[in-house]
Amino acid sequence: KAGVTQTPRYLIKTRGQQVTLSCSPISGHRSVSWYQQTPGQGLQFLFEYFSETQRNKGNFPGRFSGRQFSNSRSEMNVSTLELGDSALYLCASSGTGRNTEAFFGQGTRLTVV
Amino acid sequence: QQQVKQSPQSLIVQKGGIPIINCAYENTAFDYFPWYQQFPGKGPALLIAIRPDVSEKKEGRFTISFNKSAKQFSLHIMDSQPGDSATYFCAASTGGGSQGNLIFGKGTKLSVKP
Question: Residue range B60-64: average pLDDT?
């Protein structure tokens, strides 16, 4: 079974630009969550999508947005990039039911210059 | 407001030792408590998880101890090996049937010396 796939693995963007990150979940998983990981703040929850609807949202500004497609693939968009947005962005997918776990991808390393 | 507090930040043990990592939470609505292991350049991987209806869970060399009244839980790694050197994160969620909304601790960098 293929794992969670995130593309691209690395990105360098200029301040003020926007960026779109992609996540393909494990086959059959309908929940996709996004997290930001930085040395200072650690792993922080951005948002979760389930069946194309945002189910939960973390405490991030509106510049961070996402969406999920009918095949459960998800994209995350960050507009008007700031230097502080430099981070590892992780996607996790999970199935349904009480004992499912969240499986993480390897992440997209975003550097804003 | 940090909802899950993890300690220590870093830990060095000798091979065969038993490192213990502690976490404390505030939100009594949390109902799922996983531990993740992360190696450099990789995403976090689930090690073991517990729900508040049990006080201890073992999987191989990894044990979670859970104290609901104290709102604390800890990870013990028995017979630690150099290959266990990684960063460990505790987490919590109120997901019920979904673990898509995890609140993580700040992480503990574990180094196991040969």
Answer: 96
